[in-house]
Amino acid sequence: MYGRKVKLRFFFIILVLITLILSVFLILKSLEENVVYFKSPSDIRTLSETNKNKIRVGGMVKKNSISIKEKKLNFIITDFENEINVSYSGAVPNLFSEGKGVVAEGYLKDKSFFLATKILAKHDENYMPPEVKAALEEK
Amino acid sequence: MASLIGYYSLIIGFSISFLIIFFSIKNLSKSKLDNKIIFSVFFQFFFVSLSFLGLVQSFITSDFSNETVFNHSHTTVPTFYKISGAWGNHEGSLLLWLLVLTLFIFLFLLRSNDQPKKYRIFTLLFQQIIIVGFFVFLIKTSSPFNYIFPIPKEGLGLNPILQDPALAIHPPILYLGYVGSSIIFSSALAAVVTNYISSSWARHIKKWILTSWIFLTLGILLGSIWAYYELGWGGFWFWDPVENVSLMPWLALITLLHCTLVLEKKQILTSWVVILSIATFTLSMCGTFLVRSGILNSVHTFANDPERGLFILIFLFILVFLSIFIFLFFYKSEKTTTNSFFWLSKETSILINNWFMMYFLSVVLIGTTYPIFLEVLSSEKISVGPPFYNKLIIPFLVPFLLAMAIGPKLKWIKSELENKLNLILFLIISLLLSTFIIRNLDINFLINTILVTSAFYLFLITLKDFFSKKFKNLSQNLAHFGFSLLILSILFNNFLSTEIITNLKINETYEDGALKINFEGIEQKNEQNFKAIIGKFVIEHNGGQTDIMQPELRIYNQPNIITSEADIKTTLYKDKFMTMNSVQNQEYFNIRYQVKPFMIWIWLSTFLISLSGMIGFFKKRYEN
Questions:
Q1: Residues B385, A34: C-beta atoms closer than 8 Å
Q2: Which residues 199-258 of chain B have a CB within 8 Å of chain A?
């Protein structure tokens, strides 16, 4: 009925469409599973339940809250309204210090205790992660 | 003084743009390219260079009446970093963009004598549109020559993290790659307007694609090496948005490069080539936009300004609409010559390459931009991390690597696989080899065996081709070989890396089954603009072998920032990597000791890949 060329082209377009749909589906599916949400200590306070997903918590490191042992580093993240205890064992970035902004990635144990697996580095002393800034400005 | 010269040169350069556009339009109907045009393009380049040198000179002399210098320099910064500070900031780096834009169009005019005149003029015109856009952007929103009064005594200093040799040359090299794609963009549009998308165009533009791609590869490599030793994480790729935006044009360029190989032979895939050419530059612009506007949350984000982001966004939209308009209005669909090809052919293999590349590109694009859209739509703040990319990219590497091994063996139009037995034999060898290796490692057996097998397969086949084909297709073979080596090094680096993180006081010892780390002490040293605290660690391995590692902390005077310098002992087989961090007001130091196998091979293989591009560049023509 149709020439070979038309058929081929038709076949080609169908193939492209199918792969396109498949890959978009795959990407979106994977996004859903691997996205890390950012929360401020106040956001965490209002959570109805703590789930097991990885999240990021951002705010300021509370003054005089850092304590350090051989394996563990403990500190408090505050957004000047609510605060959360963080326990961390791992490498500390250069600009991590009291009174400065911080973003920690990890898992919530409960609403007042956060087990961090990573503390994010920053490049600039005046730099504040946009999320932290926004979270602080909301206050 | 230098600032003044810089500023006025910039204005003169801007006015020359209009002269060039005027000459070009007048010249369209004539048969020969007017020399006036080449001269004015040269003068534009000259004045922009002068302006750039003016800025560099202001930095060298620490002329703090210049706002950019005041914000990004200090009298105690070593001269080398004063110079690199000139492009280590927003204003200066845009001036560098502009410099490269004008340089490339000048080179283009010199090197395209054998091309149709009309096509050359249109390329120049489109390039001038981009150049004018950047002039306006630079002069209006981010002039590097703003004057401050009263003149400050001292500058605010250069971000210490930028005071590093690799990062000093990283931006210029990366920009040569980014901006190089502007020529591809202009020339593709010009070729559409003059209906000149043909094999001779493909041959001619391929050199520009290669140039841009080589610099982009080297730029990414330098950035990656820098991140490895300076950021102190011991990794080389973080899937950080700013890294991703440099990877996207890279992927587009390499796709385009493969497509032009087809176009060189036959009049097919023409519209695809045009779309890719447009996409490449658009992605480079997007990169600039995303980095500069600060909407991305990234470890690279420096201070930024929304107004600038808006300008780039508008400019980007104008360029995209212009190109879509030109494409729809002028583009004549390919003459239906004999453009069919058999399913088993080089054409098919290149289409497969394109498919994979586009898939990788979409993954990176969606992963990078999704957080922005989500934030606008639902004000949820999220980030997308390495697991997302690993999960979506790694499984597809297997067929991709296999196709990379077999594809180049196919012939144009219709092909039979020669030496089938050979190909299968190599597959079995790689399978045995990887089974043997993976069995002895404590990792997921099935997935990793398949992955390593495909990488070994490509490695062995390309290695064999070095000997059996001599120097035929050298650049292609070297590129594929380099890629297999890169994947292998990354895989084994991942499998075998070990890491110890602990907090130690001076004179304390960390001990586990395999080694002992003694913290022997610290010593202080005063340098020109920082104070160094050098730790001394003696690492005793169980075999009796000891290493002395001396990681360093640098406390910079202005701005007052602490950075850590990793101590890295590199051998062919592995890197030993140690960083030390102080924690405010605490006696403990945070210590990180890593053993990273095959690190140097990651750098070397990436260099091989760009080297293959250089070989391709200097070779007359691709053989079959």
A1: yes
A2: 231-233
Strand B498-504 relative to strand B589-597: parallel, antiparallel, unpaired?
antiparallel
Model confidence at B548, in pLDDT bands (50, 70, 90)? very high
Round to whole Å and give the CA distance between A23 and A34. Answer: 16
Residue pair B613/B214 in contact (Cβ under 8 Å)? The answer is: yes
Question: Tokens at residue A54, please?
Answer: 């990885």
Q: Is A115 on the interface with B (CB under 8 A)?
A: no
Report which of residues A129 and B483 the model is more confident about.
B483
- How many CA atoms, within 13 angstroms, populate the side-chain half-sphere of residue A1? 1
Beta pairing class for A113-119 and A83-88:
parallel
Q: Which of B79-83, B203-207, B219-223, B299-303 is predicted with the least confidence, judged by mean pLDDT? A: B299-303
Strands B546-549 and B515-526: unpaired
Query: What is the DSSP code string of B37-75?
Result: HHHHHHHHHHHHHHHHHHHHHHHHTT-TTBHHHHHH--T
DSSP state at residue B407: G
Distance from C-alpha of B235 to C-alpha of B231, rounded to nearest angstrom: 9
pLDDT at B407: 86
ipTM over 0.85: no
Q: Are B302 and A124 in contact (CB under 8 A)?
A: yes
Report how far residue B305's alpha carbon sits from residue B359's, in angstroms, rounded to the nearest whole number: 33
Between B105 and B441, the more confident residue is B105
Maximum alpha-carbon separation in chain B: 82
Which residue on chain B is closest to A122 by alpha carbon? Answer: B299
Confidence of residue B269 (pLDDT cuts 50, 70, 90): confident
| B86 in Cβ contact with B51 (< 8 Å) | no
Kindly state whether A32 is in contact with chain B, defined as any CB-CB distance less than 8 angstroms: no
**Element counts in chain A: helices (H) and strands (E):** 3, 7
Give the CA radius of gyration of chain A: 23
DSSP codes joined into one string, B159-226 = -GGG-SHHHHHHHHHHHHHHHHHHHHHHHHHHHHHTT--SHHHHHHHHHHHHHHHHHHHHHHHHHHHH
Using CA coordinates, name the residue in chain B closest to A125: B561
- In tens, the pLDDT along B532-544 reads 999 999 999 888 8
pLDDT in tens, B493-513: 999 999 888 888 888 899 888
Range list of H helices, B503-598: none
Kindly state the DSSP code that residue B152 receives in the 8-state scheme: P
Taking the C-alpha atoms of residue B55 and residue B92, their distance in angstroms, rounded to an integer, is 8
Residue whose pair of structure tokens reads 């037995």 in the numeric block: B421
Residue B300 touches partner A, C-beta closer than 8 Å = yes
Is the pLDDT at B192 greater than 90? The verdict is yes
Interchain CB distance below 8 Å, A27 and B362: yes
Q: What is residue B428's predicted lDDT score, i.e. its pLDDT?
A: 92
User: Which structure tokens are listed for B262?
Assistant: 């087809």
Q: Please give the Cα distance from B135 to B113 (Å, whole number).
A: 28
Distances (CA, A) of B176 to B107, B517, B524: 13, 44, 40
Buried b (16+ CB within 10 A) or exposed e, B67-91: bbbbbbbbebbeeebbbbbbbbbbb
CA A59 to mean position of chain CA atoms: 13
Query: Which whole-number Å values give the CA distances from B254 to B353, B479, B608, B613, in the listed order?
Result: 10, 11, 15, 10
